[in-house]
Known about the structure:
The protein is α/β, with parallel strands linked by helices. It has 4 domains: 1-98, Winged helix-like DNA-binding domain superfamily/Winged helix DNA-binding domain (Arc Repressor Mutant, subunit A, Orthogonal Bundle); 103-179; 250-476, Anaerobic Ribonucleotide-triphosphate Reductase Large Chain, CATH 3.20.70.20; 481-664, no CATH class. Strands 8-9-10-11-12-21-20 form a 7-stranded mixed sheet. Helix 8 (154-167) packs antiparallel against helix 9, helix 18 runs parallel beside helix 20 and helix 25 crosses helix 26. Residues 705, 707-708, 710, 719, 721-722, 724 line the site of zinc ion.
Amino acid sequence: MSSKNLLESILSALSNEVRAEVLKLISREGPLSFTEIMEKLNMNPKTDAGKFGYHLRMLTDAELIVADESSGKYYLTLFGVDVANFIYGVEDALRRKKGDMLVRTSSLTIEPFDRKKIVDALMREANVPRKLAESISKEAEDRLKKPQVRYLTAALIREFVNAILLEKGLEEYRHSLTRLGQPVYDVTTTIKSSAFKDYPSPERVHARAGDAVLEEYMLLKVLPRTIADAHLSGAIHINNANYWVLRPADLQHDLRPILEGKIPADGTGLSEPVHFAPKTFTGALYTVNSLLSSSSSLVSNSQSVGFFNIFLAPYLKNLKDAEIRLGLREFLYALNAKFNGIAGSTIAFNVELEIPQFLEKVKAVGPDKDSGLYADYHEQALKLLEILLEVLEEPDGASKPLLNPAIFVKMRKKALLTNDARECLVQAYELSKKWGTVYFINNTLPWQQENVFYNSTLSRVDSGWKDWESGTMRVGSLDNITINLPRISYESKGDDDKLMEHLREMLDLCKEALSIKRQILEDRIQSDNLLPLYKETIDGNPYFRLKDSPGIVSYVGLPEAVKYHTGSDLEDSEDALKLAIKIVSLMDEYATQCQPSQRILSSSITFEPAASRLTNLDVAAGYLKAKTATPYTEHSNLPLTTAVPLKTRLKMEEIFQQLTKGGHLFDIRLDEPFPTEDVLANYTKRMIETTGIGLLTFTRDYTYCFQCKSIAYGFRNKCPRCGYDGNRSVYYTKAFGRYKSSRAWSSEERDFAINNQRFTI
Length: 761
Ligand SMILES: [Zn+2]
């Protein structure tokens, strides 16, 4: 046929709506038989066959479709494809002209419907091949035309496209295309109920809505299906799921580069005033405060400062005690205004009672060009610590405690042998007795290495990894994944080998998830520029030592898992204890085997309450009866609510602390009347000298009366001073290792604070 004749027959082929529909149908669905086409166009094969045959012949003659001899199906010629697309284009243009099919977009504009945008989105967002994207978009358009949709939104179009993807078995594409977010109903519920869940604030409502999106994003897009499913089903718990894709959990700062003026406190120097290298004590404290406050959004849980009293000691030169005190007081008030213990991250200071050997020969950063060596500042470091502890002991203007920083006092051999640090220790025990915010680190144990730091998440890093600098400074926990040990027990049905095999499987999942987290942080720091301070380089290396930072694998429910497997309580039976040690040892060994390629540490500490979620999921899975189920043991190796002598707890902690190098705590919760400082001192000394406990703290409960602004020790229903018994009294105690006021307790923290056993020593 000549081209002129062909054009004529194409134009006449198009002059009928049925024929145009046939072209569109085949273009959408691929090759179809005579009867399939009729059925899909709602024609009757008996009565309409003749007329329909005529339409098909017209299309065949115009070389738009062709029949495949063997299958009997009609498909589009290359010509036919062009013409079908031309019809779609004309239809689009017509609709735009008529002004129907207007779409409300997510960028808050109203635009005419444009099928190409669906094609583009499918290709851009999910890497769908063009041909497939074309066919899906055509189907979506046809479907959208049918119902009398009056209010067409981009979100609705997306739902249609996603439904089509699901029907076609293209679920993987759908995961990339789906929208993340909350149903309208959930947002309303968040607004209405936030004030009853924790501290009331519009910011919290806003944060919760964002949490939901980023948690879904992590589960749908970032983690492989096996890991996401393990989290959702309760085999593991991913801590900080709301921020998993954005930042690490905690960080150990090194103050020296900031004090030297080598890097600005906010990383870029653009969002905050950049100060000179400080020449005075107050200047140095101001610098520390800027660093901590601008870094508060760079961690999910806590920041810690190592060698606080040593690194600031060079700035004490010629200062009177009163001046040091004033400087520290102002610093601590500013710090607690930012870190108010209600929402957001917390602060820890690791302090020393002597200059550790490895620091003695290190050049000190100080106000002068040559400030000597840190060995020269022994006296000043102790003076600074003593006054810091004194100021922390003073109540604020309304008689409340300053809860930040938590103080981690490192006890090394030399300081314990000499009398030099006596005054500091006296202050530490007094602060312990007054507010309970002190933690004692036993640095005499070989497994604590030459240097160890704890953060206020109770995560732990030591210098066994490379050296004291790369191992403990400018590193932080990437995050924490918690293994549900009882679940492993249920699934092993008493079989020891299976138990260990299941545990190893879970450890493999955790390892993979943590390695993904490391990669994500690399992207956030290097290519996304989301964590500017971490990228800032010091002598060619980034501030945040990502490769040296550990991923934490923790556990809940050790006693419950062991009890289910052996039938006995951990504290009563040798077999049960043996199994518990085997479980925790395997975790420790596994972590060691991951090194040096990946730093992983095992821990008995979760960064957020996980036990009640995991227990509920085990109830839902039928492993536990709802009526009798109580949340699994968390933050401890023995149940905390049942009566177990302190001695037994001590024995257990001794065994397990050396196996949990990523974090642990022996939290000694004491009853009133509280022991004297001397009793605390003797008890601590005995623990350091004779036991394998690496970290311990004493916890005291107290009640604050808003009416008369006073503190009464213990939890009181009625203020002993003014008799006030209303709801404006506030309780304080350590919940999951950290002091918090009861105004900020979650329901898990409330249970932990109220129900756990208290002791006398
Ligand atoms: Zn009162």
